[in-house]
């Protein structure tokens, strides 16, 4: 019988269990769980100052990890912000920033999206042996030239598993909530259609009564125009729930239109299932929540529980979902080797005081250009044993920083394109006290409308606005014609000289600096102007669109009318188009 090991010997074996035969430590790859809310305001969360909505699970992540107080989205709208998040680069580099009216993808049957030759952090990690999954919202396109080519699909961008909404959760998905898609265009088309049919009926009546000699070709022309106008109005817009409100598993449409009542539970179940299936291998899970984008969920288990009506109920349900995901990570024994990250794609939707969020002291909100309320978001990292609990970082950081941070932690040292994000890990650990973002640039569509400068050796963060979208009324509420601010023409106000604020002393951007109140006024504008010129020079490499390396600095615009408008031959469909329809089996939910 072999003798029992002594305590010192057992301790030594445990100590050296993580070393290989050569005595080197086996550095296992960390797991990543990224959780992104939709339209969540920074003022909605308890650990960021809210004392009327309960967010204990998000607050726990902050208490056990690192909280960022100047975490900035690259855009105040879904599509460009998420493109920048995924690629680590400003959305204009991937063609996902619009120079026109439509600033996000508006139809799943459009041909625009994140181009196949773009590189995402999921693609990089997949190449390093990670199992990668996306559960939830995508909103970066599906197909390019034909239904089923899936050139923009998550599976083509590094996610080996996908379940969720390839578009977004929007008002059209729930009857009685109106429409989010080009309401004024819909109204104009409807009115045109009505007038054409009235004109046709009038011509027919006039001819039948013999009041005038109305030629048949004129009646035929009116009939053709009436039919065409009806088709242009009805087919894309009147069937929006069928075209856009769908669920996919990988590249298969599994529900069309989707049922919203059980959607939160299904997304949670899919996220937990992914974690359990991949607990024994390195993984990346991106849980892209549908909360708290309008329309709000019924949330029966949370109805009436908050002090902020349906919005507060939805937010508390979202917090519960985050708690369930975190609990799953912990119960599987993965916490010590898993980085959990929580954020929002941009600031809260402030136009609707009942259904919208709170951006705290910050001005503006979703789709309102570079004002802080639309781009300052929660940013929380938890990794027990690796990141100090309770640390607060009050330095400028970006959603684009996730790309280089994840690739750094995955030990991906392969050459990459020019990135606009920086590796955050030294800042999170406390090994670095200053952000590498001396300058940051803020876009309204494809137009650079603001920039910030964090001078070395100073606590100040100077923010310069070159132009601002027109609010109604100024500083609050929506924009003049629509709830999404446009970024060009008469929809904006240009400032000469630019508006200048010091966010360290005036985070609400309410007191513009002048040469009389800021001694460095001229220097600040000069420094920012030089930085903008240097930044913009990186988009022009002298290459042509036919050059295979042309996309390294910029890409064709993916949000043109030609790209975003509905094309029947691209529409995802279960069944035979146009009779699309199917239901996912949810009897066990």
Detailed description of the structure:
- This protein is α/β, with parallel strands linked by helices and 589 residues long.
- It has 2 domains: 27-170 and 245-437 and 559-580, Alkaline Phosphatase, subunit A (3-Layer(aba) Sandwich), CATH 3.40.720.10; 183-238.
- Helices cover 28% and strands 17% of the residues.
- The chain is built from 14 helices and 18 strands.
- Helix 5 packs antiparallel against helix 6 (216-238) and helix 8 (263-277) runs parallel beside helix 9 (309-331).
List the helices and strands and how they pair.
Elements: H1 7-16, E1 31-37, H2 56-64, E2 66-72, H3 78-87, H4 121-127, E3 131-136, E4 161-164, H5 183-209, H6 216-238, H7 240-244, E5 247-249, E6 252-255, H8 263-277, E7 283-288, H9 309-331, E8 338-344, H10 372-375, E9 376-382, E10 391-398, H11 402-409, H12 425-429, E11 439-444, E12 447-453, E13 462-469, E14 471-472, E15 478-479, E16 492-502, H13 521-537, H14 561-564, E17 575-576, E18 579-580
């Amino acid at each position: 019988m072999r003798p029992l090991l002594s305590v010192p010997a057992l301790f030594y074996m445990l100590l050296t269990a993580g070393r290989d035969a050569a005595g080197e430590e086996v550095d296992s790859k960390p797991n990543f769980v990224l959780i992104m809310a939709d339209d969540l305001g920074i003022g909605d969360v308890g650990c960021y100052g809210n004392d009327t909505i309960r967010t204990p699970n998000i607050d726990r992540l902050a208490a056990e990890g690192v909280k960022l107080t100047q975490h900035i989205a690259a855009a105040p709208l879904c599509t460009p912000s998420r493109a920048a998040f995924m690629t680590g680069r400003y959305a204009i580099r991937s063609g996902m920033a619009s120079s026109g009216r439509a600033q996000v993808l508006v139809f799943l049957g459009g041909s625009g999206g994140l181009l196949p030759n773009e590189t995402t952090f999921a693609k990089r990690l997949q190449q390093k042996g990670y199992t990668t999954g996306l559960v939830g919202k995508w909103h970066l396109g599906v197909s390019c030239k034909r239904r089923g080519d899936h050139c923009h699909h998550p599976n083509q961008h590094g996610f080996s598993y996908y379940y969720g909404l390839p578009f977004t959760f929007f008002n059209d998905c729930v009857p009685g909530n109106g429409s989010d898609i080009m309401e004024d265009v819909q109204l104009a088309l409807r009115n045109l259609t009505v007038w054409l049919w009235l004109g046709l009926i009038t011509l027919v009546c006039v001819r039948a009564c013999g009041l005038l000699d109305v030629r048949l070709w004129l009646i035929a022309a009116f009939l053709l125009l009436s039919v065409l106008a009806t088709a242009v109005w009805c087919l894309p817009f009147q069937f929006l729930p069928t075209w856009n409100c769908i669920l996919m598993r990988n590249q298969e449409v599994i529900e069309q239109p989707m049922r919203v009542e059980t959607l939160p539970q299904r997304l949670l179940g899919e996220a937990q299932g992914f974690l359990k299936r991949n607990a024994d291998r390195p993984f990346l899970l991106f849980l892209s929540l549908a909360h708290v984008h309008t329309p709000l969920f019924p949330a029966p288990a949370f109805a009436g529980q908050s002090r902020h009506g349906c919005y507060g109920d939805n937010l508390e349900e979202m917090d519960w979902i985050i708690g369930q995901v975190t609990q799953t990570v912990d119960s599987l024994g993965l916490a010590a080797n898993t980085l959990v990250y929580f954020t929002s794609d941009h600031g809260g939707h402030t136009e609707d005081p009942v259904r919208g969020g709170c951006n705290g002291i910050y001005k503006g909100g979703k789709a309102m250009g570079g004002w802080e309320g639309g781009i300052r978001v929660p940013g929380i990292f938890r990794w027990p044993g690796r990141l100090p609990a309770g640390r607060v970082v009050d330095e400028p950081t970006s959603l684009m920083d996730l790309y280089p941070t994840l690739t750094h932690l995955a030990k991906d040292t392969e050459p990459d394109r020019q990135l606009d994000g920086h590796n955050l890990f030294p800042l999170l650990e406390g090994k670095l006290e200053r952000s590498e973002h001396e300058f940051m640039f803020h876009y309204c569509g494809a137009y650079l409308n603001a920039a910030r400068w964090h001078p070395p050796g100073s606590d100040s963060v100077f923010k310069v606005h070159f132009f601002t979208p027109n609010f109604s009324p100024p500083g609050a509420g929506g924009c003049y014609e629509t709830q999404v601010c446009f970024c060009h023409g008469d929809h904006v106000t240009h400032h000469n000289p630019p508006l200048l604020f010091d966010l360290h002393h005036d985070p609400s951007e309410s007191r513009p600096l002048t040469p009389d109140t800021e001694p460095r006024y001229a220097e600040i504008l000069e420094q920012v102007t030089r930085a903008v010129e240097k930044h913009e020079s990186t988009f022009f490499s002298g290459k042509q669109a036919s050059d295979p390396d042309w996309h390294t600095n910029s890409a064709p615009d993916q949000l043109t009318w030609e790209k975003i408008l509905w094309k029947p031959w691209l529409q995802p469909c279960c069944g035979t188009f146009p009779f699309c329809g199917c239901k996912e089996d949810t009897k066990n939910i």
